[in-house]
Write a structure and sequence with these properties.
Elements lengths: L3 E11 L2 H12 L3 H21 L5 E4 L4 E6 L2 H12 L13 E11 L6 H5 L2 H8 L2 H12 L9 E4 L1 H6 L2 H5 L1 E9 L5 E9 L1 H16 L21 H11 L1 E6 L5 H13 L4 E5 L4 H12 L1 H5 L5 E6 L11 H16 L3 E8 H10 L10 E4 L8 H15 L7 H11 L8 H10 L6 H11 L2 H11 L3 H12 L4 H14 L8 H8 L4 E4 L5 H4 L1 E4 L2 H4 L7 E2 L2 E2 L1 H14 L3 H13 L6 H11 L2 H16 L7 H12 L5 H11 L6 H9 L6 H10 L6 H12 L5 H10 L9
Parallel strand pairs: 4-5, 8-11, 8-12, 9-10, 10-11
Antiparallel strand pairs: 1-3, 1-4, 2-3, 5-7, 6-7, 13-14, 15-16
Helix pairs in contact: 1-2, 2-3, 3-9, 16-18, 17-19, 21-22, 21-26, 27-28, 27-29, 29-31, 31-32, 31-33, 32-34, 33-34
Length: 726
């Protein structure tokens, strides 16, 4: 273990001290000594202020009216410099003192002391001071400006300090290569960097903002001025807040409600408002937040020009009822709108806010103050998610961003709406891949972080009422027709004795703004003109709902499995039920697993089982043991009512099955009663079938009058010679 500790050194001096003091003294008829003393006092007080805040761990005041300061990090160095720059001399026209500032890195052992003369004698301090970068900057500046010296504040950074800067800070630096003359006419290139003072002021202002919202060292919000990507609704959000003074930002979990609210705090802070964040991550915080919201009038009396953010006061995962708040919300809104120059931001998950809104006793329509961030819309499309990804990856200096192949791989995955679907999942991915430069590890992180939205939705469902869990069980199985779900839902609420269950239409209304959508899909519209999840990440939540800590969950055994049992005997549901059982086989009770065999034996559901198995295999979701899968497919091929469906299934997934299934497909093509289905399946899957197998099938079909024309069309389309023998 090393005994050395890295510190950041700041050297600063008053620029043109003597000449400036004489100039001011002559203008206002005082002594230059008085001016110099005042300047030193002003800067000294600002330095003392940084010391009082524990931003510096050491300092030394030099004989030439210069200072050497020591901090623990570059972030703190920026804060210190920003604090020092925020001064006022009270000399009209000379309110700001021009400073020359240098930043470097020093390595000190554990015995080092950082005050006064003890700091100056340290080897790292001496080495930093000997870099003479301030002198080199003056020479470089004079060369660039016809011999004139700099007159305004500048900041110079050594190479070692530059190497430690975050990516976004490095981008704001200009590299300077100063040619220094050495012996015998030779020159040596001295490299250092300069950064615009406004950048440091901006960083300092943001640090001050973070302190005021009680997140002083946050790495989540410390770049909110640069990496924030507004949702599509952001203009409307700002318009509503500006006009109505209060806004409810609701929507999907992890979808940027809090980040958007903090960005609003930042923007109002820059307009001169005091930002207040009343947090709600923990239950105790939400309890306190509700009490403060109820007593908002008292709080407003002590505030002028403030913007207050209440985080999830109505509940995090489920509605946490507060009767006073339900009764007084209208009064609270009126109070905020009429009381002074104060703005109120409230965030909430969509379903939690709906619950509160439904129970509210106020005559005020809360929807008029609401703006929604939704994954259904989506509020962040591919282009915005791409902007978030690249912005965060750049700010964190991700290694993979340097390689075009890895960058393109990541962006290609991002085009799938299921991959990194929310702003939070993107930020988590970036933070976890800062040091990754291998494609395999990168893809693994994409897949892992993409599951977070599904997990979050699963947590929401666990906290929902039983009737809502029942309703959502249907789209977890299949996008059934709406009228079918209505009938089955109403029937099951009675069977399960859910006496307070909401009616179907009310339930659909409850979820339609975010989680659920209806309408036809481009494929099989006669069947899929139904009820389904608005985003695939919601569908993936089922994996996190069925088993917990190795045990079947209440949702699994008492709701979801009961729905499957109810639907298993209905032909319209057989395909979806079979696909669900095959895809979640190991996560379902034995009673549900047995259903697959029972359904395959019944004429009315066997065909649906064949298609359901095929879809699960095609999408890589099959969890059946291989032996069981193959036996079931063979058994279905022997059943007349499933033969046509099994042909389509085998033809579509033949590459994923043992070789004997190719011969089984040939054998099935010999049957007159399913010739039409076979010709259709061959036409659709022609290029994926082995040449030997498809030729045998085409030969068999060519002998059947009913499909001769179909065979001829296939041969013509594929420019084949008509097969005459095996």
């Amino acid at each position: 273990m090393s005994d050395h500790r890295g510190k950041v050194l700041i050297w600063l001096d008053i620029l043109g001290f003597e000449n400036l003091a004489r100039k001011i003294a002559a203008e206002i008829h005082i002594t230059s000594r008085k001016v110099r003393t005042d300047f030193i006092t002003v800067i000294g007080r600002r330095i003392d202020a940084t010391e009082a805040k524990n931003w510096i761990v050491g300092k030394s005041y030099g004989k030439r009216d210069d200072w050497l300061l020591v901090t623990e990090s570059l972030d703190l160095a920026f804060r210190v410099i920003s604090e020092i720059l925020d001064h006022n001399t009270d000399y009209e026209g000379y309110e700001k003192i021009p400073l020359e500032i240098g930043i470097g890195i020093g390595e000190y052992d554990r015995w080092a002391r950082f005050d006064g003369s003890e700091l100056i004698v340290e080897d790292s301090t001496i080495s930093f001071l000997k870099t003479n970068m301030i002198g080199y900057f003056h020479s470089w500046y004079r060369n660039k400006h016809n011999g004139k010296s700099p007159t305004s504040t500048f900041v110079v950074i050594t190479q070692s300090a530059y190497n430690e800067l975050e990516t976004l800070d490095r981008k704001k630096c200009q590299e300077i290569g100063y040619k220094k003359k050495v012996e015998k006419g030779k020159t040596k290139i001295i490299t250092f960097f300069i950064t615009d003072v406004s950048n440091i002021r901006q960083r300092g202002r943001l640090f001050s903002f973070l302190e005021k919202i009680k997140h002083p060292r946050s790495k989540l919000y410390d770049r909110i001025d640069e990496v924030f990507v507004p949702p599509l609704e952001y203009k409307e959000i700002k318009k509503t807040l500006d006009k109505r003074r209060i806004i409810f930002i609701t929507g999907t979990a992890e979808y940027g409600k809090t980040y958007t609210a903090v960005r609003l705090l930042w923007e109002y802070y820059n307009r001169g408002y005091k930002p207040i964040w009343i947090q709600g991550a923990e239950f105790s915080q939400r309890m306190a937040a509700r009490e403060r919201l109820e007593e908002i009038e008292r709080e407003l009396k002590s505030l002028l020009r403030a913007v207050i953010y209440f985080e999830d006061p109505f509940g995090k995962l489920r509605y946490e009822r507060r009767e006073i708040l339900e009764r007084e919300i209208g009064t609270i809104i009126s109070c905020v709108r009429e009381f002074g120059d104060v703005y109120l931001i409230i965030t909430s998950r969509e379903e939690v806010f709906k619950e509160f809104e439904e129970r509210s006793l106020s005559s005020v329509k809360l929807g008029g103050f609401q703006e929604k961030l939704s994954i259904k819309k989506p509020s962040y499309d591919y282009e915005k998610r791409k902007e978030i990804l690249l912005g965060w990856a750049d700010s964190k200096g991700c290694k993979w961003l340097r390689f075009n192949r890895l960058k393109e791989t990541t962006l290609q995955y991002l085009k799938d709406s299921r991959k990194l679907p929310t702003p939070l999942s993107i930020r988590d991915f970036v933070i976890s891949t800062v040091s990754i430069s291998g494609e395999e590890d990168l893809v693994a992180q994409i897949k892992d972080k993409s599951k977070e939205t599904a997990r979050s939705f699963a947590d929401e469902i666990v906290n929902m009422t039983e009737d809502r869990k029942l309703f959502l069980s249907f789209p977890f199985i299949s996008p059934f027709p709406k009228d079918f779900v209505r009938e089955e839902y109403e029937k099951m609420t009675e069977k399960m004795n859910l006496t307070n269950a909401a009616k179907f239409d009310k339930m659909l209304e409850w979820f339609k703004d975010d989680k659920i959508e209806t309408g036809e899909l481009e494929y099989r519209p006669h069947y899929y003109a139904g009820l389904r999840f608005s985003h695939p990440s919601y569908l993936e939540a089922l994996d996190h709902l069925l088993v917990k800590k190795g045990q079947f969950t209440h949702f699994n055994t008492d709701i979801f499995s009961k729905v499957i049992l109810e639907l298993a005997n209905q032909p319209i549901a057989s395909e979806g039920v079979a696909q669900t059982i095959v895809g979640k086989f190991e996560k379902l009770p034995q009673q549900i697993r047995k259903l697959l065999l029972e359904m395959s034996e019944k004429d009315e559901t066997a065909g649906g089982v064949a298609i359901g198995i095929g879809l699960a295999i095609a999408y890589g979701h099959c969890r059946l043991p291989e032996t069981m899968r193959n036996e079931l497919l063979i058994k279905l091929s022997q059943k007349a009512t499933a033969a046509e469906d099994i042909v389509c299934t085998i033809a579509a997934i033949l590459a994923k099955l043992p070789k004997e299934f190719g011969e089984l497909l040939v054998k099935l093509s010999e049957k007159d009663e399913i010739a039409g289905g076979v010709s259709w399946a061959i036409g659709i899957n022609f290029d994926e079938l082995p040449k030997r197998i498809r030729n045998k099938i085409l030969l068999n079909l060519s002998r059947k009058d009913a499909v001769k024309k179909d065979v001829a069309r296939i041969i013509k389309k594929k420019s084949l010679k008509f097969p005459e023998k095996n």
